[in-house]
Amino acid sequence: MRWEEQRVDAGRAGELPLGLPDPVARGSGRAGLALPEPVPIEAGTEGAYAIEIQAKSILNRVPGEAQVPFRWTVNPYRGCTHACVYCFARRTHTYLDLDSGRDFDSKIVVKTNAATLLRKELASPRWTGEPIAMGTNTDPYQRAEGRYRLMPEIIAALRDRANPFSILTKGTLILRDLDLIVLAAQRAPVSVATSIGSVDEALWREVEPGTPSPLRRLDVVRRFAEVGIGCSVLMAPILPGLSDSPEQIDATVAAIAEAGATSLTPIVLHLRSGAREWYHQWLSARRPDLLPLYEKLYRNGAYAPKSYQRQVVDLVEQAKRRHGLTPPLRPGSFRTQQHDLPQSDVDQGRERQLTLL
Fold it and tell me: Three-state SS across the chain?
């Protein structure tokens, strides 16, 4: 695995700025993850590991061609035990010489020095205090965070520098840090969002098995509304044939509106390499009847045709009007999502034939 030279061994464990008890014995649990033996980690194995490393940098600049409303990110973890079958970030695990399927769900890279490194980089004369987005690749409030507690020190570092930031999560563990986030919001712009693609509990158990239920995520929306920060919702992803019916969309929008979300942005599933293969494997096993639909929608690339996306977005907008979910009253957040529909690869003139099958 890449980054082998950055792994933390037992002899250095006591130096980590984690505030944890004495090192857990190798093979015992850290949020359901074991510490691997001090040998190279192989791809495709069954072991679920917390791979502790000393990162060399923590502030990541977003490539200029990326169509996202932020330029800098912080990701304290790589891989994610949420195990969402559609996760767009799966391919990033292949950069570590691990696979984008089971390894992504179970071999979690923990940047144990994330907060110390962030304080150092924020103090650099070259840093200009731009907004920082978290939760853009893998979730900073996945289960491992309950053990490693990296986020409180990360948020404290941002608070102390009065640096704007945003957090996107499916994890209810963010409520542990609610008071700290409130303090940070008193010094700089702070934006919080959660992802709720559907409130169908049966579907949630199938496609997001490691996450808190969508109903518990709605509690996150309520709590942030109560403290005056507010919480936006990405209705994402909306899954063709699974969560895109008018009835399902209406039920989801109604629940999000009732919880007090400041805004709601629908996003239809996109299937990039890595996620595409893993999602197809799940479909083949659990919903083979939907394979023809996905072959039709995604035969030309990662995005569904604009016509389909527009139909789904129109249904969401109609439901928002019915349930009184109006645009946010506050000035636009630096994390505000763009509402332009992603272009399909055909629309962009990239005529490559990527069959889902």
Answer: CCCHHHECCHHHHHHCCCCCCCCCCCCCCECCEECCCCCCCCCCCCCCEEEEECCCCCEEECCCCCCCCCCEEECCEECCCCCCCCCHHHHHHHHHCCCCCHHHHHEEEEECCHHHHHHHHHCCCCCCCCCEEECCCCCCCCCHHHHHCCHHHHHHHHHHCCCCEEEEECCHHHHHHHHHHHHHHCCCCEEEEEECCCCCHHHHHHHCCCCCCHHHHHHHHHHHHHCCCCCEEEEEEECCCCCCCHHHHHHHHHHHHHHCCCCEEEEECECCCCHHHHHHHHHHHHCHHHHHHHHHHHCCCCECCHHHHHHHHHHHHHHHHHCCCCCCCCCCCCCCCCCCCCCCCCCCCCCCCCCCC
